[in-house]
Every structure is written in structure tokens, then in C-alpha cells.
Amino acid sequence: MIPTDDFLTTFKEKFSHLDERPSSDWPAFNASPEEIVAILESLKKDYDYDMLVDVTAIDNGLEFSPRFTVVYHLYSTIRHHYIRLASDLEDDENPVAPSATGLWPAADWHERECFDMFGIRFDGHPDLRRILMWDEYPHFPLRKDFPLAGFENELADEEIVEATGTKVKPAPMAGGPFVAPQGDFMTVREPRAKDESWNERSEKPDS
Amino acid sequence: MSSETTEISIPDSAARAVGASQEFETEKLELSMGPSHPSTHGVLRLNLELDGEIIKKCDPVLGYLHRGDEKIAENMTYNQFVPYTDRLDYLAPLANNVAYAIAVERLADINIPERCQAIRVLISELARISAHLLGLGAFAMDVGAMTVFLYTFTEREKLYTLFEELTGARFTTSYTRIGGVARDMPEGWTNRVLQFIEEFLPMVDEVDGLLTRNRIWVDRTEGVGVISREDAIAYGLTGPNLRGSGVEMDLRKDLPYSGYEQYDFDIPVGTKGDCYDRYLVRIEEMRQSARIARQVIEKMPSGAFYAEDAKKIFLPPKEKVLSSMEELIQNFMIVTEGPQMPSGEVYFEAENPKGTLGFYVVSKGGGVPYRLKIRAPSFCNLSILPKVCLGSMVSDTTSILGSLDFVMGECDR
């Protein structure tokens, strides 16, 4: 086992082209999607980072490019140390990242969750299905353009549309006691009563 | 004189069945177990493919309890999210509160006073005892030992009374705040905790006596659901499930937080990684938790239960808000805009009853997290199910599920 300080110097020498990522706690590096799997492999084999604790993604916002960043957290059960690796994905519309399932089976479910929530495809994943949402669900809920109150969905089945007269499936929170409109300010985003016919200025009508 | 022996073979029904299976093509049976099966502890569904009684394929279906906690977190202030952490691992809400608070405090770089740290260690350990009591009771009941459940639930009820005294709620405690805890311990509470430990430890021995050398229990758990050391690490298992496989990883020892380094305790580890080992680890962890709790109470420092640095984050006391202008303004700012945090990224994991609960907080400044990822131990622990169930009997799934001790509230988030 190499002491952590020595490890960091040798790691930085070996991968000197990597940018250090701003971090408030553990060492963090940015890497390109092409080489991320090779770096993860090197960390696992040469530097004792034997446990993949987390794979997740960040949506940097619609106006920002590269929009999606995949973040890996590794832990060494020998050295008792974390390291964070992040990788900006090139395509903003259909982001693709390489899969780490070949290195750790733990990556399987984490990557499925990333796909489910952000729509990031993992190249080489053996079984990329949705994991938390149902298979037919059309949206990616953790993207920043997905509203907290959800989207209304078009009904796929024409027979049901004909029989019931409803064309859309309401969003999860639509018509509920509270709705949370989207906006920049907390005061706007705060969940409030759905019925907007009355407020502080005009009184509630008698029902 | 010589005698002749003639061998007569009379095929029994089992041998006939073997012969028949070679003659006929048998179909694999698809069995959907759950989402409301008693042994799936919540809403887990397993799509099993069976060949007779043997599981040939296991595909867990998750998401029945998905509430979008991570999305919700992006839309509210840091302190507003504390009640949502109760609903992750709802069997140990206090431990979740602590883990979340420490993660955000690392981001804000707040030093927590010793008394607050000690209270947090104490409640984390009590939460661990309460979670293991339920986990063990339910595990034993699924495998057929009903009595254990009654013993453990009696003790758990006493703990809930203690939690109610401390936090005002039995179940959804929401006790921590960023920079401290909601209120100090009530007078005489630590003595009642000590009294609880006095009563609780003999119960552990009793459960130990009921199960550890019980023939049926050993038959149902020993050698069942074996997880090797390498697999446990590769699948990212944590907590008692990882330690049951012989990996001595415990963040309370490896990366002490909240002052765990002051306390003396052992980490129990298993040798074979089967259901029986995981059970033994949990039994011993309860004893160790009681040991830590006693030390915390003995050393309980005096002082403030919230951080001085956290003045910009922590709501001022109610009586000051009503009498002083400055506190009133501060109260108003915190409630409307949220506590102002520096920008940065933090990943913090705490050793929770089910494993290590991690929070990855990405902040771009302001009162709302830009992204909050919850690394749920139950989610990672369950990911090994397809592998561990393969080739085992259908009846073993109850043992395996019981010994993995998961919570779907945390798994689905």
C-alpha cells in the first residue's frame, strides 16, 4: 500500500494531462469520455481503489454546453480514501458515455439509473433499461427542463382515447392540492394551492 | 454352502421423476414474487425464472416507491430537505438526518461543537439498534421463528418512546439541522437511555440463545446466499452485508466523523459471507452500539447544541425572534431565501444501519442545492440479488432477502 500523498503525486505524474476539478473535500479530476474507463481501470488495478461507490450525472442546464457530466466516486477499502472523477459528455442531445460494467458489476444499476433519470446512454452496458421509472415512461425526470410538477403525457392507445374522450394523461401533480410552478425565484417555485381564483387580493368565492 | 443374491431395484418416486424429466421437455416457470410479498419488506418485485424449485434467473424490479427525492431536493432549501431524509431509510431516520446534516456542513465548512457531535453519535447508535431490531425480527419471522419478532419489537417500542421524548415524533424525527440539532436533549433523557440499554442487552442474549444454535435456524441460513469477499466489494455492498463477507470496512473506524474516534468499539466481521454470518454480525453490532452509547453518555460534554459558525444558517431561537430586530431579519432571510452556501462539491458517506449512506451535494451558491445525489446502501446491496439468488431454492429467497436487510424507501428514493 502506498501512502495517499505519494499516490496522488504518482497519479498526477502518470496522468499529467488531467485537469483537477474544483472540490471541497476529496481529490477530483476531469477526464474525457474516451479515456475515463482506462483511468478507472488504472485506479482499480494500480492504486487500490477497489470499490465503485457511486456513478451519477449532473445536468448543467439547457444553455450550457457540454450539458451532461458523468461523475464517478471510488473508494479504497485498503487506503480508506475517496476519489472523484468527472467526464463531460460531448453530445448535448443524445449523450453517450462508456460503461464501467466491465470493471465493476456495481456499475450496472448505477448506470441504469443514470440512463433512467438523465437519458445518458452507456456504451457497452449489457442491459440498459429503466430502473426506477416504468419501461414506457417517455421523459428523463432529473433533466433541468423537466418541471417538478411533471409533464402531461399523450395517451398512446387510440381506443382509450375514443372510449374515454381524454387525450392526455395528467402530470403527477396536476389537479392536486398543490402545484409548484417553475421559475427562477424560490417565492415563485414554492408549491401553492391549485385553485387560483382567489388570493390575498380577491376573496374566495362562496362555493 | 453358497447362497446367491439377486438385486432387485424398485425405483422410488424421486427416481421416476428424474427419469421422466429426461424423457419430457419441461418448461421453465416464470414467477413474479412481490411487490406485496411479505418477505420482500416493502415493494420489491422479483421476476424469477424457475426450473422446479431452483432459481435460474432473478430480475429485481424496483421503483414502486420512487418519489423523486433528488428532484425535490433541487427545488427546496437545505433545511427544508431534512424531513425528506427521514423517508429514505425510514427504519433509522435519525441516522439519515445526521448523514445529510454532516454532508451539507462539510460543504459550508462549519465546525460542530462537541456536545452536538456527541448527541449525533448517540442518536445514530440508537437508530442502528432500532433498525437492527426490526431487521432481525423480520428476518427471523420470515424464516419461521415468530418469537424473536415479539422480543425485538418490545424493545424497539421502548426506543421509539425515547425518540418521541427527544424529537417529538416516533417515526419521522427530522431532528438535525444544518449546523446542529433541533433542540437539546430533555432532562434525564440520558438516564432513561442507560436504563433502556440495561433492559435491552439481556434481550439480545435471549435472541442469541433462541437463534444462534437453533437447528432449524442454522439449516435455513448457514451456507445459504453466500457472497464472497471479492463479489461483495465488486458489487459495492456496504454495512453488515459487506462485513458479513469478511471485509473489515466501517467508516466509523476508517474515516471517523462526528467524533467517533473517541469511542472504543469493535467491528464484527463474518468468515463465510452466508446469511448466518450476516445475522451474527448484526447481533454483535447491536451490542457494540450499546457500548458506544454508554461511552457517549459517560463523556457527554456540555456546551451548545448548535454551531456558532452556523448563525447564518441556523434559525435563531423563537423567543429572540419575537424580541430582537436582528434575529427577526435573520429568521426572515433564512426562511425565504434559504441558508446561503458556498459553491462547491462534496461527497460524504456515513455508516448507517443498512450500509453507507452517501450524499453528493453540488452547490452553485445560494440556498438551494444544484444537484443532490443520494447514494442509497439498499440500492447497491440489492444489486447483487441476481447473482446471489442464482441456483438457490425458492424458499431460500426469504432467507437471502431477510439477511440483506434492505429498505425500499431508500432503494427507490
Q: What does the model show?
A:
The complex is a heterodimer of chains A (207) and B (413). Chain A is of the alpha+beta class and 207 residues long. Chain A has helices at 4-14, 36-46, 107-118, 158-164, 186-189; strands at 19-20, 28-30, 51-59, 68-76, 81-88, 96-98, 121-123, 153-154, 168-169, 178-179, 192-193. Chain A is elongated. Chain B contains 18 helices and 8 strands. Chain B is elongated and about 110 Å long. The model of chain B has no long low-confidence stretch (mean pLDDT 87).
Principal-axis shape of chain B equals: elongated
Helix count from the secondary structure assignment of chain B: 18
- From the N-terminal CA to the C-terminal CA of chain A, the straight-line distance is 74 Å
Helical content of chain A (DSSP H or I, runs of 4+): 10-25%
What count of helical segments of chain A does DSSP give?
A: 5
Count of strand segments of chain A = 11
Name some characteristics of this structure.
heterodimer; A: 207 residues; alpha+beta; Beta Polymerase, domain 2; 2 domains; five-stranded mixed sheet; two-stranded parallel sheet; 22% helix; B: 413 residues; mainly alpha; Cytochrome-c3 Hydrogenase, chain B; three-stranded antiparallel sheet; 18 helices
Brief summary:
Chain A is of the alpha+beta class and 207 residues long. Chain A has helices at residues 4-14, 36-46, 107-118, 158-164, 186-189; strands spanning 19-20, 28-30, 51-59, 68-76, 81-88, 96-98, 121-123, 153-154, 168-169, 178-179, 192-193. Chain B is mainly alpha-helical and 413 residues long.
List the helices and strands and how they pair.
The complex is a heterodimer of chains A (207) and B (413).
Chain A: H1 4-14, E1 19-20, E2 28-30, H2 36-46, E3 51-59, E4 68-76, E5 81-88, E6 96-98, H3 107-118, E7 121-123, E8 153-154, H4 158-164, E9 168-169, E10 178-179, H5 186-189, E11 192-193
Parallel strand pairs in A: 2-5, 6-7
Antiparallel strand pairs in A: 1-2, 3-4, 4-5, 8-9, 10-11
Chain B: H1 13-23, E1 29-33, E2 45-51, E3 54-61, H2 69-73, H3 82-86, H4 93-108, H5 114-143, H6 146-167, E4 176-177, E5 180-181, H7 189-211, H8 215-221, H9 229-234, H10 240-244, H11 251-254, H12 275-299, H13 318-323, H14 325-337, E6 344-352, E7 355-363, E8 371-375, H15 377-382, H16 385-389, H17 396-404, H18 408-412
Antiparallel strand pairs in B: 1-2, 2-3, 4-5, 6-7, 7-8
